[in-house]
Amino acid sequence: MYFSHCARRLVSLLCASLLMPAVMATPAATDLLPSGARTGLLIQPLSASQPRLVQQTGDYFPPASTLKVVTALAALLELGADFRFETELRSSRAGTAVIFSGDPTLSSEDLTQLLTQLRDKQGKDIDGDLWLDNSAFNGYERAVGWPWDITGVCYSAPASAMNLDGNCIQASIYTQADGATRVFVPKHYPVQVTTNARSVSKVQQKSEHCDLELNAGMDNAYHLSGCLAQRKQPMPLKFAVQNTELYLKRRVYALLNQLGITLHGEIRIGSLPQDAPSQQVAIHRSAPLAELLDKMLKKSDNLIADTVTKTLGRRFFLQPGSFSNGTEAIKQIIFSRTGISLQDAQLVDGSGLSRNNRIRLDTMRQILHYLWQNDAKLGVLAMLPVAGESGTLKYRRSMRSDNIRGHIRAKSGSLYGTYNMMGFALDDKGQPDTLFIQYVTDYFPNQRDSDSAEEAPITRFENEFYRALINSEHKTSNAP
């Protein structure tokens, strides 16, 4: 009964808000959320000059992955949709070099093709040293504010100038009848993974408060401990590379051996000595930026977002890219090209993974409105996931119902205690007619049993918010 009352009260509030100038909502709008949660809600029909609903607790919110929309805008404005990352192989009398540019999609197959071209053109012997040039970027490979406890998993892989296979290692862990576990890692990964994690029942795991824990070392050695509930099938694991230089050196040595190439010197990190002119041997180009951004927004790819950010810093300031100059470049590019100021925003990466990012609700409103106004030129709206159909929104519980599925294009963003969404509600022809922002942070509900069928408070809240957002009766009343 209480939930039904609150749901009706929320819908009523949203309906009323769509028909009046911008308002500050009453506490009843957040009754579906746990006590203490901060919210920033905004709805603006695209036919109106001002929002019809503004409700916010505080001025600044952690954007989480909704920040990727800002990164995409800056990248398209500065680099253009046809920009491609380039990985170049050059040689001189002083040695041979692979010059990396931070391509977040560079694969082992791409690198193998470059080295194969070297062998075909210059033979099976490399005189002197082979340099792995990572001078495109400098500074931290992980941004300030990335929690230590997620650095071992692939969605927080380091953003390096020398990325390979997403800086991600795929493995699997098996539970065994004797209470032990074992790990399988494909042989081509030059890493070490050990485990002394125990295989226990679900009841025992819960009673002992014992979870599977990962310790990742800078020598790319990983150790699993704690407990894993017994399972019939192996559990997939994805480890983030910790030391990109060491990892790439080992992978290149293995590829040279695989191709029958003899290196008479050593593999070194740095730039090719400039005492002799060099010539290009081979080059690999990534897919166009528009294609990378489509993947970044639909799959919420952090590595693409952060390498694009560093590339913006490199191109805009004519110096090695970093998180510091990359985020400043985003601010300056957007202000100079759109007039939207982000100077009071706290940006420390381009992915939104850092807990230190903060941005105002109205700043994001301006970004969304600009993207809509300039969609014919930028094409960002088609890159956004569709509710219940694509990307990160395909399986989102609050977007599965028939009256919501297919009626929203948006970017989600989640961090610990933060559940965000921003984008556009679509009309009956699939065209955007209303922009919206949902920022929910400091969200800490009472813990519930993982087997419980009861929906989480955030899911109940989103269900009602999105239903009110796309209700056709409201849209017919959007004329100012």
TrEMBL record:
Domain of life: Bacteria
Enzyme class: hydrolase
Entries under InterPro entries matching the protein: Peptidase_S13
Keyword list, A-Z: Carboxypeptidase, Hydrolase, Protease, Signal
N-terminal signal peptide: 1-25
A Gene Ontology molecular function term of the record: serine-type D-Ala-D-Ala carboxypeptidase activity
Catalytic activity, EC: 3.4.16.4, 3.4.21.-
One BP term from GO: proteolysis
Annotated Pfam families: Peptidase_S13 (PF02113)
NCBIfam families the record matches: PBP4 (TIGR00666), PRK11113.1 (NF008322)
PANTHER family found in the cross-reference section: D-ALANYL-D-ALANINE CARBOXYPEPTIDASE (PTHR30023), PENICILLIN-SENSITIVE CARBOXYPEPTIDASE A (PTHR30023:SF0)
UniProt-recorded name of the protein: Serine-type D-Ala-D-Ala carboxypeptidase
Organism from which the protein derives: Vibrio ostreae
